């Protein structure tokens, strides 16, 4: 009987050791993975010399590219894509475009995507949520 209790005790101890080791991991910051990738829906817009596109029922599909700090933005409604935009982490769970200013920025957080991006006389806007 003592031998059976000892074996059972060893199995229980082994179970707790394995469970403790496998459950311990670093907290995963969403800014370090593909957390921000996905579809955001809301208002989108684009203007250039020839076009003025605006929709309150648009979407932006966000993908993280291989560099790890750059993202692509595929717009609906015939709006040209923004590709290879570089980001820095700001705070715990927010990404902000490198070189952001008050009049040109892209900001992604837990549930929202905000874009006001100006380049070469073209303007992209988005106010979207997941």
Summarize the biggest pleated sheet.
8 strands, antiparallel, barrel
Number of strands: 8
Q: Structural class, from helix and strand content?
A: alpha+beta
Strand proportion, as a percent range, falls in over 45%
- Give the spatial strand order of the biggest sheet: 1-2-3-4-5-6-7-8
Q: What is the straight-line distance between the termini?
A: 59 Å
N-to-C order of helices and strands: HEEEEEEEE
pLDDT below 50 for ≥5 consecutive residues: which ranges? Answer: 25-32
| Helical residue percent band | 10-25%
The gyration radius over C-alpha positions equals: 23 Å
How many discrete domains?
A: 1
Structure description:
This protein is α+β, with helices and mostly antiparallel strands and 130 residues long. Helices cover 17% and strands 46% of the residues. The protein has an 8-stranded antiparallel β-barrel. It is elongated, with a radius of gyration of 23 Å. This is Lipocalin-like domain-containing protein.
């Amino acid at each position: 009987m003592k031998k059976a209790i000892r074996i059972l005790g060893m199995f229980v101890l082994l179970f707790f050791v394995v469970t403790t080791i496998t459950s311990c991991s670093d907290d995963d910051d969403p800014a370090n993975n593909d957390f921000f990738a996905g579809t955001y829906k809301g208002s989108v817009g684009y203007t250039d010399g020839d076009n003025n596109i605006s929709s309150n029922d648009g979407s932006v599909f966000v993908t993280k590219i291989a560099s790890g700090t750059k993202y692509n933005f595929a717009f609906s409604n015939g709006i040209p894509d923004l590709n290879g935009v570089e980001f820095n982490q700001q705070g715990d769970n927010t990404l902000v475009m490198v070189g952001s200013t008050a009049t040109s920025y892209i900001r992604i957080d837990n549930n929202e995507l905000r874009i006001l991006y100006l380049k070469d006389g073209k303007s992209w806007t988005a106010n979207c949520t997941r």
